[in-house]
Design brief:
Elements (H helix, E strand, L loop, with lengths): L4 E5 L4 H12 L6 E5 L9 H4 L9 E3 L5 E2 L2 H9 L12 H28 L8 H28 L4 H16 L10 H11 L2 H4 L8
Parallel strand pairs: 1-2
Antiparallel strand pairs: 1-3, 3-4
Helix pairs in contact: 1-3, 1-6, 4-5, 4-6, 5-7
The structure holds glutathione.
């Protein structure tokens, strides 16, 4: 029997969700145990910092006790552990496009997490200018997906780029539903329906704990 890995996990982290979807897609879910680990930008988790000095989720503890982070590294590592269709294309423009979409999806998450963190601060401490900038970046990213990416995204082999973009759109639904991102983006809406219907995606819906 192959030794198990341990994933520092949260049901609301979109980066963790990306890793869980990858694990499901490549048939590795059974090899990963999860442990609920609490992190907060202003309260570093001292225990977690022994494995990841940045105190961030996801962090994956391998069977030999060593740790891997961040989500990009973990996803690429998991993709080396199976012999099926690869989520990270090996080379050429297919790889570059998948990595660019991965960067766009993660960039959207970075922006929205900063935005949400700001929203949770006392109103008097919030920077309106930053929040306007984060909103603009998020909206322009959705426009770019509709105008420049979605047709080839829909036509290309499922990859880490699809997962990152889908997780970012799912995070808008989770934390910023008022953006109503589907409005004016019919092709992206249609593609997202196919993404959201995948068993790997349905098995890892984001949620707040009770
Ligand atoms: N680039 C990292 C970002 C991870 C990240 O920021 N995760 C959040 C949880 S959603 C976190 O750990 N925040 C705690 C902190 O910033 O201290 C990745 O892809 O894994």
């Amino acid at each position: 029997m192959t030794a198990k890995m341990l994933l520092h996990w949260s049901p609301r982290s979109p980066y963790v969700r990306k890793v869980m979807i990858v694990a499901h897609e490549v048939g590795l879910s059974d090899r990963i145990d999860t442990v609920r680990t609490v992190v907060a930008a202003a309260t570093p988790n001292v225990e977690l910092m022994k494995e990841n000095p940045q105190s961030r989720l996801p962090t994956l503890r391998l069977a030999d006790g060593s740790a891997l982070y961040d989500s990009r590294v973990i996803c690429e590592y998991l993709d080396t552990l199976h012999n099926g269709d690869k989520l990270f294309p090996a080379s050429g423009s297919e790889r570059l496009v998948a990595l660019r979409r991965h960067a766009l999806g993660d960039g959207m998450l970075d922006t929205m997490l900063a935005w949400r963190g700001e929203q949770l601060r006392p109103a008097a401490n919030q920077s309106i200018k930053h929040m306007q900038a984060w909103k603009l970046k998020t909206n322009v990213s959705v426009d770019a997906l509709e105008e420049k990416e979605v047709d080839t995204l829909a036509a290309s082999r499922f990859s880490i780029g699809h997962i990152a973009v889908g997780v970012a759109l799912g995070y808008i639904d989770f934390r910023f539903p008022e953006l109503d991102w589907r409005k004016g983006h019919p092709r992206l809406t249609k593609w997202y329906e196919t993404f959201a219907a995948r068993p790997s995606v349905k098995a890892n819906e984001p949620k707040d704990e009770p």
